[in-house]
Amino acid sequence: MRRVLIAVAALALPLSLAGAPAVAASQGTPSTVVVEQARAADKLNGPTTLVAQGPDDVCDFTDSRPSLALGSSGAAVRQAQCYLNQATGAGLDEDGDFGRVTQSATRAFQQCAGIVVDGRIGAQTWSFLSFWANAPGTPFC
């Protein structure tokens, strides 16, 4: 019960600080809660654009998000290269080979996004890449 209350407080606090009504998060799926929060914010701030994930994703090589580094290859690397091109206008060949050019583009993206700069694509970088690649008005840096 304590965990549920902490989760509800963690979700409600940013909304209450933004002036939007708090939405109880103890019921429904995470995606339902996000949509409910967006609708609550829409009432006060106007429409909110939800970013496409899945079938409407701007890059569609794979849904897999493994850790990638120099020497990695395959569909996940092509996905990351596509995201880097969309998010930053990197101009990478989407060839599925994580070489020095992809590593450099990854570092530049990480620096721009304000996240850990290590030239590897792990969970945090995947999250930022998929968000910014699918955001309206890309490239963003």
Layout of secondary structure:
Elements: H1 2-17, H2 30-45, H3 75-88, H4 100-113, H5 123-134
Helix pairs in contact: 3-4, 3-5
| SSE sequence, one letter per element | HHHHH
Low-confidence stretches: 1-18, 20-35, 48-54
CATH architecture descriptor name of the largest domain: Orthogonal Bundle
Count the E strands.
0
Strand content is under 5%
* Largest beta-sheet characterization: none
CATH topology of the largest domain: Muramoyl-pentapeptide Carboxypeptidase, domain 1
- What's the number of helices? 5
Mean pLDDT: 75
Helix content: 40-55%
Round the Cα radius of gyration to an integer and report it.
Answer: 18 Å
Give the CATH class of the largest domain: Mainly Alpha
**Spatial gap, N to C terminus:** 42 Å
| Protein structure class | mainly alpha
Instruction: Name the assembly state.
Output: single chain
What's this entry about, in short?
This protein has 141 residues and is an all-alpha fold.
Describe this protein's structure.
With 141 residues, the chain is mostly helical. The protein folds into two domains: 2-45, no CATH class; 52-141, Muramoyl-pentapeptide Carboxypeptidase, domain 1, CATH 1.10.101. It is built from five helices and no strands. It has helices at 2-17, 30-45, 75-88, 100-113, 123-134. The radius of gyration is 18 Å and the shape is globular. The termini are far apart.
Question: What keyword list fits this structure?
Answer:
mainly alpha, 5 helices, 0% strand, single chain, 141 residues, 2 domains, Muramoyl-pentapeptide Carboxypeptidase, domain 1, globular
